[in-house]
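Need residues for this backbone.
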């Protein structure tokens, strides 16, 4: 337990610029972390689809409903079936959001005092849940209606873990003075 306290205490120490790092992660590092985190989310989504009985296509089809407007009034059973258009749109949206959030992680984490992995567990859920409750009902009301909150949380927790671990091990570059 003492090691945990030491890790947390070490994580929140301020650097020479009063808490704002003089180093940043390259944008590409955040993008790669986002892709890796997004891939980990897919594994969680597939496991959810299998365990819930809704099938592996359910999560990706719900994402695709953001742009496939004729799906707005579709019954939940329709999202359980394979649809190539749903796969293409859902995967594209998921990858894009995973990269954007990964880049936001890379830009935001160095401005916070302490260890990236510690903040990943705060920043990730805040960013994703902010998107869920603020934007999702407007952009994708079908997903907002049908999303399984526990699996959504687990998927985003895993995303945050993977991105945080990636950034923890990634080299930073020094800001120009």
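Answer:
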């Amino acid at each position: 337990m003492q090691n945990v306290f030491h890790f947390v205490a070490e994580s929140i120490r301020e650097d020479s610029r009063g808490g704002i790092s003089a180093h940043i992660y390259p944008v590409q590092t955040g993008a790669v972390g986002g892709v890796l985190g997004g891939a980990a989310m897919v594994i969680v989504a597939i496991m959810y689809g299998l365990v819930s009985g809704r099938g592996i296509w359910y999560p990706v089809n719900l994402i695709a409903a953001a742009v496939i407007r004729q799906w707005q009034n579709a019954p939940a059973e329709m999202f359980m079936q394979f649809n190539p258009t749903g796969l293409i749109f859902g995967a594209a949206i998921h990858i894009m959001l995973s990269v954007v959030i990964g880049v936001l992680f890379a830009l935001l984490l160095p401005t916070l005092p302490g260890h990236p992995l510690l903040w990943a567990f705060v920043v990730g859920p805040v960013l994703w849940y902010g998107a869920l409750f603020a934007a999702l009902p407007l952009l994708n009301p079908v997903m907002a209606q049908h999303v399984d909150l526990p699996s959504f949380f687990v998927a985003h927790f895993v995303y945050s873990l993977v991105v945080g671990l990636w950034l923890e091990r990634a080299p930073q570059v020094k800001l120009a003075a």
